[in-house]
Specification:
By secondary structure, the protein is α+β, with helices and mostly antiparallel strands. Helix content is 42%, strand content 18%. Among the domains are: 224 residues, no CATH class; 199 residues, no CATH class; 47 residues. It contains 29 helices and 36 strands. The strands form eleven sheets. Strands 3, 27, 28, 29, 30 and 31 form a six-stranded mixed sheet that branches. A hairpin with a 2-residue loop joins strand 21 and strand 22. Helix 28 packs antiparallel against helix 29. The longest helix has 36 residues.
């Protein structure tokens, strides 16, 4: 029986080879083509916004990192294969006629370059593709500097942990990958070429194979020794004691740290033993060394720390962990900007020591009590400001900012009237209309947060006008201040209000505009100079600086491929001067030009020098600040509003955060500007070294722009979560949790959001020192697993003391009701319950509670105020229904106030203070239209005696019928008057002795 000769890979016919090559080329085009298209269009876009240096720097770093890692990994693997091939035995006996290794050996020998070079190159390319995403680590290592703060264990600057240690670990990881793959590649190669044979009882191993494998194993163990050395520093970010605290605990420092040094020593000894295998033929020494390393890593690295933790630390945890909790407290305060120079703690009694009537600061606070809730009024803004233009919209929720009108600062509910592509319908959704006609929004809307108009007539509601009257007792609508096409319209602005001038109201870049399926608009028509919709009577042609030119066919081809849209290539509406506007979300534009920043979840519009700009707060972060508490951003910043609106949250784990950059995006031309606002942040300094001209100095911020900077919500929510624990100084008290605070649940929410955190609120508070109003971001804190108030946190936004945090600390035994208790006491009051049942009777209307504001007054007292909205229950999501302010609730000490205005509610709990309120119904700019519902007849006091009582009963019946009729009509203004009539009738009936 003859022996069958070994065969290689099956050969392909010429036709099969052509088909295979064509398939590979097509696959490459499908894989690489979109990436090349994106690279070119991104190149154009970064050039448009003036940040091409960012694009090229990131691209160059990625390419260089890809090449370095790919070459290093490939060369190490290639050397391992080359050495195995060069040292192969000259003669290798075959194990019978069916020896499979002989076939593989023949195949490899016939294609040495394919296997010897192809395998290392393939693994190197894959490694490079993974490694290039670590460009941030490389750039921070190259440009990082010191923090000026040393860690308490190794006394190294924090910059080592932030900038250097991640780079060293990255290098070490790729060396590990290279050596491990090289070891197995060398092992397999020796097996294929005969240097390693498994036949027989013990098999055989050639001298070359033994030497090479021993060296590679020794290198691996040496790298493990280096890893043990670096692991020592990683202990300062240990999570062993979470959720109590982050950082090296007693066990980490006194058991794991010595264990790392012991294991390092054993690893060095084991590496020497492996290298000894190069000289000694006895493999038992390296084998014993490997067993020793594994055994010691289990006993010394795992069992010993576990014993220390169980039998030494746990029985005496408060004492053992005291020093390490102190480290955690100090580091966390530094990492989250909560040091003594930024946070001021003030003892607060919880009970007033002064009459708010006599305190100027309290008068300012009461004057600016915010009635309008930006989280509820989106539909109100839409129904009242869009007229017949279905394609406009407002974000949900709305935003709050402040403006100085008539020389006096006030807070305003603000919104940009944006294009909302999802609202286009019918022929509006045609490609030409969608992308070349309906291209932008128009207008800036601001409403004083402490004022309302009286309810307008029904016809006026339907027309979307803002007609009003001076009656209505607080059943109100926002007072609108609208900037549209040419100037600020006085259509909605009362005569006593000064307009906010807007010179360029058109909005090409915004939050809603970017939420379309294809986020682009093509401006600059070929044959119609004015093609874009601007107003019902006028068209417009974009003349701003934004947009990438589409004049040449190559660009048109690139964008046609990018959006898979042939119309971009063939449409006659595109001419030599046309441009394409894309990447229109303000937050996305900021994070694209500055990928090293984390953007706040809320961008808000402001009018600066007559132009609408989006202001975006941006953060620098780290995830490895030694001993600082780690937290997940999306976890701590989510509140009841986020659960109902789906606001985009930053998703990353951090142990250091700074709001070092304020960014602006021009709503008309998309210009992105980054401003430095924290010169002390080492992370920002590092990034400014990477991108020298990307961030403008603080001196470039105009006073008008600075006046609109707000303390960012996401940062504040992270900081209040930290303050809940890290206001405690005593480590023992920290360990017991007794002095901790909690963020209260939002008591105004129902359903899925009922258990979510109460959001912080922007309010204008009177300053006790100057008596002037300050724009602050505030939040209350309750006791740990309790409902009583423990603290009141306010972060200042005004330029003079921006970034300072004041914490009013109530006594530990305080019985001041928290938000949940206050909400219950207010909503269960007799008159409130009665009106609620009347207003919602028959499921005609639904009640929405506005933001429950907590206000410090009387040098120690706490005042709660909550607006109460009513919305027609239409039963359909697209029905024209929107909330209207109907009542105001107030609570002070244990008293509950309830009225149609802040004045009425306050005078019931703080007599005399209501005179400072400014929420009286305002006069609308246009008079009531004809056909308005006439006011109901006033209720006159009845005569005394039995006849008077009968008359009072009749008045009660008439008033109840009027309430029922108003409920059926859906006219909330009429309903408000009917409720007032009912209350008067009840009072009259009581006067007669009923």
């Amino acid at each position: 029986m003859g022996m069958r000769p070994p065969t290689g890979l099956p050969s392909l016919s010429r036709r099969s080879r052509i088909l295979l090559v064509a398939a590979l080329v097509l696959a490459a085009l499908l894989l690489v083509g979109p990436r090349l298209t994106d690279a070119y269009t991104n190149w154009l876009w970064f050039g448009e916004v003036g940040f091409r240096n960012v694009y090229t720097t990131v691209l160059f770093t990625r390419i260089l990192l890809f090449l370095v890692v790919a070459v290093v990994v490939a060369v190490i693997i290639w050397l391992a294969l080359l050495l195995a091939y060069r040292s192969r035995p000259v003669f290798v006996p075959m194990n019978g006629p069916g020896d499979p290794i002989a076939r593989y050996r023949t195949t490899v020998m016939s294609r040495l370059r394919l296997f010897g070079t192809g395998i290392p190159v393939l693994i190197g390319v894959l490694s490079g593709l993974v490694a290039q995403s670590s460009w941030v680590t490389v750039q921070l290592f190259l440009h990082g500097s010191s923090f000026g703060v040393k860690d308490p264990q190794f006394h190294l600057d924090v910059g080592f942990y932030a900038f250097d240690l991640p780079f060293y670990r990255m290098v070490l990881n790729w060396l590990f990958v290279s050596v491990v793959i090289a070891f197995f590649a060398n092992l397999v190669a020796h097996y294929v070429f005969g240097g390693l044979r498994l036949s027989g009882r013990e098999g055989t191993l050639s001298t070359s194979a033994r030497v090479q494998l021993a060296i590679l194993a020794g290198l691996f163990v040496l790298l493990k020794a280096v890893a043990y050395w670096l692991d020592r520093y990683a202990l300062l970010s240990s999570t062993r004691k979470e959720p109590t605290f982050t950082g090296g605990s007693y066990t980490d420092i006194n058991a794991v740290l010595p264990a790392k040094l012991i294991l390092l020593s054993i690893a060095v000894i084991c590496a020497i033993a492996f290298f000894a295998g190069v000289v000694l033929r006895d493999l038992r020494i390296p084998a014993m060394a490997a067993a020793l390393l594994v055994l010691s890593s289990v006993l010394v690295g795992a069992v010993w720390p576990l014993l220390v933790e169980q039998f030494s630390v746990r029985p005496n945890a408060a004492t053992k962990e005291q020093a390490y909790i102190e480290r955690n407290i100090e580091a966390t305060r530094q990492a989250y900007g909560l040091t003594q120079d930024k946070v001021q703690y003030v003892d607060y009694k919880g009970e007033a020591t002064k009459d708010p009537v006599t305190v100027p600061a309290d008068q300012q606070t009461i004057k600016n009590i915010r009635l309008l809730d930006p989280n509820l009024l989106t539909q109100t803004f839409i129904q009242r400001n869009l007229q017949l233009q279905n394609f406009y919209g407002f974000p949900d929720p709305l935003d709050i900012d402040r403006y100085t009108i008539n020389g006096e600062m006030g807070d305003y509910i603000v919104a940009a009237r944006e294009l909302q592509p999802q609202n286009l319908s019918g022929n509006q959704t045609d490609w030409i209309n969608k992308h070349t006609v309906y291209t932008h929004g128009n207008g800036f809307v601001a409403s004083p947060a402490n004022k309302v108009n009286a309810a307008p007539p029904k016809e006026s509601q339907q027309a979307g006008q803002s007609a009003g009257s001076d009656s209505g007792g607080g059943y109100g609508y926002p007072v609108f201040n609208v900037g549209d096409k040419k100037t600020v319209s006085d259509l909605f602005t009362p005569k006593e209000e000064q307009a906010i001038p807007v010179d360029q109201p058109r909005i090409y870049y915004g939050e809603l505009i970017a939420k379309s399926d294809a986020d682009y608009a093509i401006v600059g028509s070929n044959n119609q100079p004015k093609r874009e919709y601007d107003t019902p009577t006028d068209q417009f042609t974009y003349d701003g600086a934004g947009g990438v030119p589409l004049g040449n066919w190559f660009n048109r081809l690139a964008f046609a491929a990018k959006y898979a849209e042939r119309n971009i290539l063939f449409s006659g509406a595109i001419g030599p001067d046309s441009k394409i506007i894309f990447n229109r979300n303000p937050r996305d534009r900021v994070t694209q030009v500055a990928p090293w920043l984390t953007a706040d979840g809320d961008a808000y519009p402001a009018v600066v020098k007559g132009r609408i700009v989006w202001i975006v707060d941006a953060y620098t972060t780290l995830d490895n600040y030694p001993y600082a508490q780690k937290t997940s951003l999306d976890g701590v910043v989510e509140d009841s509003i986020d659960q109902t609106t789906g606001r985009l949250l930053p998703r990353k784990e951090v142990s250091y955060i700074r709001n070092s950059v304020k960014a602006t995006v021009d709503a008309y031309d998309g210009t992105v500007s980054l401003y430095e606002v924290d010169k002390t942040d080492p992370v920002l300094k590092a990034w400014m070294g990477v991108f020298p001209n990307a961030v403008k100095p603080e001196s470039a911020i105009s006073d008008e722009l600075r006046a609109h900077f707000r303390y960012p919500e996401d940062l504040f929510k992270v900081q209040r979560e930290m303050l809940a624990k890290y206001h405690v100084d005593d480590p023992r008290e920290f360990f017991t949790n007794n002095a901790f605070w909690s963020v209260p649940n939002d008591p105004t929410q129902e359903g899925a959001a009922s258990g979510a955190h109460q959001p912080p609120y922007y309010v204008l508070l009177g300053d006790t020192k100057t008596g002037k109003s300050q724009f602050n971001l505030t939040s209350v804190m309750v006791g740990y697993k309790r409902n009583f108030l423990s603290a009141y946190i306010q972060a200042h936004s005004d330029p003079d003391n921006y970034g300072k945090i004041t914490v009013l600390k109530l006594p530990p035994d305080s019985q001041t009701p928290g938000p949940g208790q206050t909400q219950t006491s207010m909503t269960t009051a007799d008159q409130v319950s009665r009106d609620r049942n009347l207003l919602t009777g028959g499921n005609v209307n639904k009640i929405k509670y506005g933001n429950l504001l907590t206000l410090p007054v009387g040098d120690g007292g706490i005042l709660y105020v909550e607006p109460w909205y009513l919305e027609r229950n239409t039963g359909g999501p697209n029905a024209p229904s929107f909330p209207q302010l109907v009542k105001v609730l107030a609570s002070y000490r244990d008293k509950v106030g309830y009225g149609s205005t802040v004045k009425e509610a306050l005078d019931q709990v703080l007599p005399g203070t209501g005179s400072a309120a400014t929420d009286q119904p305002g006069q609308a700019a246009t008079p009531p239209t004809q056909g308005a519902t006439p006011p109901t007849a006033p209720v006159t006091p009845p005569a005394t005696g039995s006849g008077g009582r009968d008359a009072a009963v009749k008045q009660l019946d008439d008033a109840l019928k009027a309430v029922q009729d108003a409920q059926k009509s859906g006219d909330l203004g009429q309903l408000g008057k009917a409720l007032e009539q009912l209350q008067t009738a009840v009072n009259n009936y009581e006067k007669t002795g009923g």
